[in-house]
């Protein structure tokens, strides 16, 4: 983490942060994986000591004996530890945010803002970097509520138990962020990613500076993942059933089915409940039913921490260079269903899955472009007993998504930040149709050469013209002198000739 977080040093101590780590048994049937917090502050109001307690069953089953690294299939442990480290570094539930080189905290009104909309309660962190994040992701200065307006910022989780509510960012707008209140990631997959959400919060404490090149963009809800790079209207505060793009929720009216929103994973939904059962009007769900279930769907998500939405939790994640197309309907999920892709700008992309049969017993190898969006491809996967546990073939269906949507999304997913995400004018994705610096330099060089050659040629031509004009002028002067001599003698001849002619007559 040293390459990611720079801590303002503590002059009175030999260490920046001391964390006591314990592995212990939590209460029976506890679903808590770990807990962490701070235990001491320095003179700059920065935590300089803390604790981390790991629930032993989770350590034994998911963490023990496995080397874990960010960005790999075994990233589960380090992502979990980062989540807990954030609880030690930052007290999201308190107003302890301040500018750099200052111990004067922002006021409560400068730190948090609450409002109600569609019957749902919202709470936002509205500190400077949190606001910049919102501007870049949502494109609005202010969130408008039914009872209050708030400076746009990062939504704080209000659901979950006492150890979750108020101390995490909200699950719904920040799916895939490691500091949400419940972890969708499991061992053997690479799903969570440290993003500009975590960085904004760390910056706003006034105690840390982050190396943005180590982090990754939050693809979920990112305008750069959309066609034309346009903002998703009302993504931050609108009812998900109405504002989320296709593929974000399971059961929405599209052909994604179990395919993940970013084409990088396959997954099923969480537990459900009946969505039209509101006999008790005082429940959180029924108070906010216009937000949680405006379409009056028969079944919705069961968990309040997911805002009762039918999210697709990951079961299989595709490695770099591979993806999965919309249309995955099989109830079991395997990495062998991920295919290789290659984008040609935003015009089209090729997609190939080995060990499949499509046409003429050849593997699925298709090209998706602007003219065949939504086209259906039926193929079979040849069973791998090590993966599927049985011989045979399985039928599959794939649909071509818009190539710009696909290529923007997978590119954004597989990259680290290449520019400062808190620069309001920066973009992470380059325009594939824009001329490169090399092209521009070459064109400028060629145009310079052409201009120079043209100038030289023009100078030569002008020189020749001047030369001939001068020469011609000199010739003209010589000719004029002889003509004047002849004119002097002509009158005598003329004078004589008429006399002769006259006399002859």
UniProtKB/TrEMBL annotation:
One annotated GO molecular function: metal ion binding
Cofactor: binding details: Binds 1 zinc ion per subunit.
Stretches the record annotates as Disordered: 473-505
Secretion signal, residue range per the UniProt entry: none
Positions bound to Zn(2+): 168
Keywords, sorted A to Z: Hydrolase, Membrane, Metal-binding, Metalloprotease, Protease, Transmembrane, Transmembrane helix, Zinc
PANTHER family in alphabetical order: LEISHMANOLYSIN-LIKE PEPTIDASE
Protein name per Swiss-Prot or TrEMBL: GP63-like
Organism: Trichomonas vaginalis (strain ATCC PRA-98 / G3)
């Amino acid at each position: 983490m040293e390459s990611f977080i720079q801590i303002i040093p503590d002059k009175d101590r030999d260490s920046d942060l001391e964390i006591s780590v314990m592995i212990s048994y939590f209460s029976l049937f506890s679903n808590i994986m770990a807990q962490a917090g701070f235990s001491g502050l320095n003179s700059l109001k920065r935590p300089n000591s803390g604790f981390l307690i790991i629930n032993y069953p989770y350590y034994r089953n998911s963490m023990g004996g496995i080397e874990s690294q960010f960005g790999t299939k075994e990233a589960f442990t380090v992502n979990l530890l980062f989540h807990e480290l954030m609880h030690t570094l930052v007290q999201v539930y308190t107003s302890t945010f301040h500018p750099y080189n200052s111990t004067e905290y922002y006021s409560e009104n400068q730190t948090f803002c609450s409002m109600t909309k569609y019957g749902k309660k919202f709470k936002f962190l509205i500190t400077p970097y949190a606001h910049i994040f919102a501007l870049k992701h949502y494109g609005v200065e202010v969130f408008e509520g039914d009872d209050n307006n708030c400076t746009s910022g990062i939504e704080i989780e209000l659901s979950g138990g006492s150890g979750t509510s108020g101390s995490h960012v909200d699950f719904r707008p920040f799916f895939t962020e490691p500091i949400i209140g419940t972890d969708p990631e499991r061992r053997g997959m690479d799903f969570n990613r440290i993003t500009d959400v975590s960085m904004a919060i760390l910056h706003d404490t006034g105690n840390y500076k982050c190396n943005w090149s180590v982090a990754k963009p939050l693809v979920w809800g990112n305008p750069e993942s959309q066609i034309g790079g346009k903002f998703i209207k009302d993504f931050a505060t609108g009812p998900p059933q109405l504002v989320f793009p296709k593929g974000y929720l399971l059961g929405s009216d599209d052909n994604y089915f179990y395919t993940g929103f970013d084409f990088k994973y396959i997954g099923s939904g969480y537990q459900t409940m009946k969505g039209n059962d509101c006999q008790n009007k005082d429940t959180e769900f029924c108070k906010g039913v216009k937000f949680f279930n405006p379409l009056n769907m028969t079944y919705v998500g069961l968990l309040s921490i997911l805002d009762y939405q039918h999210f697709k939790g990951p079961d299989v994640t595709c490695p770099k260079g591979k993806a999965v197309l919309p249309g995955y309907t099989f109830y079991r999920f395997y990495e062998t269903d991920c295919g290789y892709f290659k984008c040609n700008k935003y015009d089209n992309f090729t997609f190939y899955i080995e060990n499949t049969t499509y046409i003429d017993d050849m593997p699925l190898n298709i090209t998706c472009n602007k003219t065949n969006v939504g086209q259906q491809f039926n193929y079979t996967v040849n069973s791998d007993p090590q993966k599927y546990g049985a011989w045979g073939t399985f039928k599959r269906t794939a649909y071509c998504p818009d190539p710009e949507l696909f290529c923007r999304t997978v590119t954004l997913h597989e990259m680290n930040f290449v520019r400062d995400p808190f620069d309001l004018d920066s973009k992470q994705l380059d325009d594939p149709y824009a001329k490169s610096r090399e092209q521009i330099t070459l064109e400028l060089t060629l145009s310079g050469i052409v201009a120079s050659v043209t100038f030289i040629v023009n100078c030569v031509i002008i020189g020749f013209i001047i030369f001939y004009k001068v020469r011609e002028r000199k010739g003209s002067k010589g000719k004029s002198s002889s003509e004047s001599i002849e004119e002097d003698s002509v009158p005598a001849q003329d004078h004589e000739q008429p006399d002769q002619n006259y006399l002859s007559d």
